[in-house]
Amino acid sequence: MSEYTAHDASGPSVGIVTKQSYTFAEKPAEALVLESGTRLGPVTVAYETYGELSPTRDNVVLIHHALSGDCHAAGYYSKADTKPGWWETMVGPGKGIDTDHYFVVSTSILGSCGGTTGPCSTNPATGKPYGLDFPVVTVGDMVEVQKKLLDHLRIERLLAVVGGSLGGMQALEWSLRFPDRVGGVIALATTMRHSALAIAFNEIARQAIMADPNWNNGHYYDGEKPATGLAVARMIGHVTYLSDVALRRKFGRRLQGKEDFSFQFDDIDFQVESYLRHQGSKFVERFDANSFLYVTKAADYFDLERRAEADSAVKVFAGAKASFLVVSFTSDWLYPTYQSRELVRALKKNNRDVSFCEIKADAGHDAFLIPNQRLSRLIANFLERVRREQSK
Amino acid sequence: MSEYTAHDASGPSVGIVTKQSYTFAEKPAEALVLESGTRLGPVTVAYETYGELSPTRDNVVLIHHALSGDCHAAGYYSKADTKPGWWETMVGPGKGIDTDHYFVVSTSILGSCGGTTGPCSTNPATGKPYGLDFPVVTVGDMVEVQKKLLDHLRIERLLAVVGGSLGGMQALEWSLRFPDRVGGVIALATTMRHSALAIAFNEIARQAIMADPNWNNGHYYDGEKPATGLAVARMIGHVTYLSDVALRRKFGRRLQGKEDFSFQFDDIDFQVESYLRHQGSKFVERFDANSFLYVTKAADYFDLERRAEADSAVKVFAGAKASFLVVSFTSDWLYPTYQSRELVRALKKNNRDVSFCEIKADAGHDAFLIPNQRLSRLIANFLERVRREQSK
Hints:
2 domains; disordered N terminus
């Protein structure tokens, strides 16, 4: 166990961690062939690891982040660092994903801006950032990149893959693309086909970015960033991750530092407005607008039924061999429970081993990111069970 | 009954109608004093009427439109006009609001762009459009303007006031501001206090408008309009009026005129994307961006509990004398049924006569605008009952 004392109250931490990277496809002949048919290379994948790899290399858990995350899932980058990784409450010694037992690998996804190749990376053909010349990527492409990294790390088999939202889509994709390499799949607050409602919100967010003149068709890396467009996009996304009841509890109709309405537009009336604006401007500092376009597009394209070339969900998981844990949250209206139930039905029709749990939570879609003892226990027990069965 | 044949299949129409207007507060001394304390004048109110005023002037139904509507609730402007008023399916001979029996008055609300004074009207102080110099108005101010029109028309008492969404807020406001002048209140898909979620979406939409450089702090009337910002704002609003199930049924994941994904950003992949873009660009042609700011702000400020200066809902309707019909729709997540129930509870605590119905409907918040026999019957029966009780 780490001697490092975490800054938050979520218990012991994996401590100081280092972001690493691996680059492949440096020669044109080795380029990664994407689902679109486009060839991409070189490809750098940023990653972090927590815990110790067992001598038999059989204790690996791969974590997938969601839309706005990156490979920094746990720990701190320095003693002075006050902000831990995005899943600090789940990943660490004695936690749901227990780094005393498991070797955790966490990567930044293809197309994003967390160190893995994406639209802000240098296009070797021009020596400048790709911008919109970066090819549109899919969840399948993200998973291929992760698989290349695991090959490099000489990890043949994953004890489990785990993720929420877009991360859950990657976990599901793993079970079909590399069925012999995955023991367990943990899919949280996710879906097997992105809904029209989810596509609608993503499309509006993309339109908000593209409406910003600074976006300049994706060429803004040497000038002003499309900050206002990206802020609006983030606000749209952010409100869909919350819930009516969470917003009521957190803000209600409380005014922001005033007793009465301002009767003005250059002032802020409600706390919820102030909160959203803050979320928007904070996001702009850390996220790339083009990446937002690419990552939301990948989510919109995600549709396991379509890939199965079947007109029903029956055959979707015919090739899968893993055990599954599917978890939804009562107040998640972006990926509602009925979508998890559809996933569970499709798995059962293919005789997959699947556990399903709907957790009562007010926090909306974001519930999977919030400390929840029940979720931690579910994940810990599932990992333990997969490990037991694997060692039989 | 009108001899005019309606263009749609919703039955007979009120036929050709004419938009009228009335201007008051032309002298500074007669200015309308708004809730903010600001004085406004002159004020023009645009309106239409359908049906015949009874000799005893006791058959008047006042209709309130929602955010993006105007006074043109029913009928056509000419024989060549193919687009009827926004509530054509509800208002007309033999319909839910039966113009064979009732004299219907429908006004454009203060602050909007449907002919009633708003930010695009000429500011008498400058001879130019008000822009952001227009004062922030409230639902109460809207209702005051309607009352001035009714005084002008010598209509002392309303058989009923009726509206959905922001229109429902106006109806509720009438019952408290002028309790002796309203017999019945029909409040559809509405709330007595705008929720944090609803404020959040409105705020994001406003931010989208203000992020458009053409918005230019509200001064755009002699130049390029903030069309992209307003389109994004409309798309945000529009998707909140629909529902997950309605979007699934209407669009699902169907592609727009293609067999496979485009893998591009300058193309449209999904039908739902095409639909939203169409909604956005259509709206820009008919609506003023500044009005969008003012009207959403009025909705956000709406809070009957706050006005009651009470910390519970008990006293809110203490002054009301009308009978109430409250209707919610199962798939409306912007003004969910629990908010209608809160309203009903507050009314009952004050011993008001109230009927409540939750209608099963997939269409989301927009359900109140969509032909629904049950809704039409509920409204017709309620009006009939109020009329009977009034004539006792």
